[in-house]
Amino acid sequence: MKTFTLFFICIILSSCNHFEFSPNQTFDSISLKDINATNLKRLGSGVNDDTVKFVLTGDSQRSRDETVKLCRTVNAIDGIDLVVLAGDITEFGALKEMLWISRTLQDLTMPYVAVIGNHDETGRGKESFRNMFGELNYSFVYGGIKFICHDTNSREYDFNGQVPNMPWMKEQLKPSQDVTGFVAVSHVPVNSLDFDSKLREDYMASFAQTPGFLASLHAHTHNHEVLYPDKSGIPYIVTSSIGNREFLVIQIVNNKLSFERVPF
Amino acid sequence: MLTVSCLSVRAQQFKFLIPDEAIVQYAGSIGFFSAGAGYDVFGNKRGNLSFHYGYVPENKGGELHVTTVKLSYKPWEVHLKEWGKLYPFNPGFFASYTFHKDLGFRFPKGQYPGDYYYWSEAIRPHLSFNTELDVKPPKVLENTAVRRLGFYIEANTNDFYLINYLQNMKTLRLDDIFMLGIGVKVKF
């Protein structure tokens, strides 16, 4: 009996982190908080960095094994300032999935930020994303480049005309002293059936009208492609998925953007 | 007279509805705390069927109401002297339904094409196994209806975690996907 009790107590004590209240809970005693804000603080403003070089990746859903390999590959590349994960961190919008992926991404030697994808908005995912990563629409400036990270998962809102949030977007696209160029980062690309068709024209026109707007960056389709959906010449660049073992390294020098596909 | 005897026959018939045990559980993926009623089932009474209501308060992960049906089986029984028995490994299955405005039984048909998402947000199927220590109640409970007390620890996983595990067996371990709960059964 004594041995059993001791054994029992040992199991319980060693596994306190394993007491789950629900797979639908949106935070727990060990889940991370405000990852985006913390990592952006670490990133800094890059005022003296004339070469902005970052990784665009996405769709880490059900791909933790591959995410480990991605981290190894990215860490071996010189001069990467940050990694942008463009949505579908999870398959089922579960807190545990976000935890598993974010724990792996902590192995990156540079900061990363996450943008929300449609799968992350199923179940209680939106709330879990807010708790773990932060706002669904946010922006930051690094090396004079403004990254406008936002939610384009219109289908999850039943195409209510408010996602992407155009008034917010237009506010973000206003010129400012410390900004020389703009990139937009979101999960669903503008040509997708999952993007609100009512907002498509206004969305593309807003980018086209913004001086210094360089590119719109996406994931979602799991296949790399570059689209020119209007006559502005602005590229809409889609990265392949982590599961398909390819990401993009994007470089901005003198407000000129170039990119390279990196298989891993 | 006829009605009365009918009713008493009915009452007899429905006697099986009276639960064999009351259950209180902490965690275990069906609530911060949950309460339930259980029945010994199958001819050898080694099966256990139970119904639970669980609650997660706002400050423990966002407010949730959860109902659960569990079925488990005790294949082995170890006698530990007269005061207790150990059921070392009891596999089981349970299904939970979580009530929350964000969680639908199914994804709305008008909003999504037929096979867009393939799971239900509100229903979770779980696999479980538990270890139960069954003991004689202490003296203070001697003249009450309490027959035995059961203390158990239960590990469970669900379809979401299992799919992630099966596709990522290099980086996820079984203890990443099995979650724990502990509970007490008061057996009548």
From TrEMBL, chain A:
PROSITE patterns the record matches: PROKAR_LIPOPROTEIN (PS51257)
Residues in Calcineurin-like phosphoesterase domain copies: 53-223
One GO molecular-function entry: hydrolase activity
Xref: InterPro entries: Calcineurin-like_PHP (IPR004843), Metallo-depent_PP-like (IPR029052), STPP_CPPED1 (IPR051918)
Protein name in UniProt: Calcineurin-like phosphoesterase
Organism: Pedobacter nyackensis
UniProtKB/TrEMBL annotation, chain B:
Superkingdom to which the source organism belongs: Bacteria
Full protein name: Outer membrane protein beta-barrel domain-containing protein
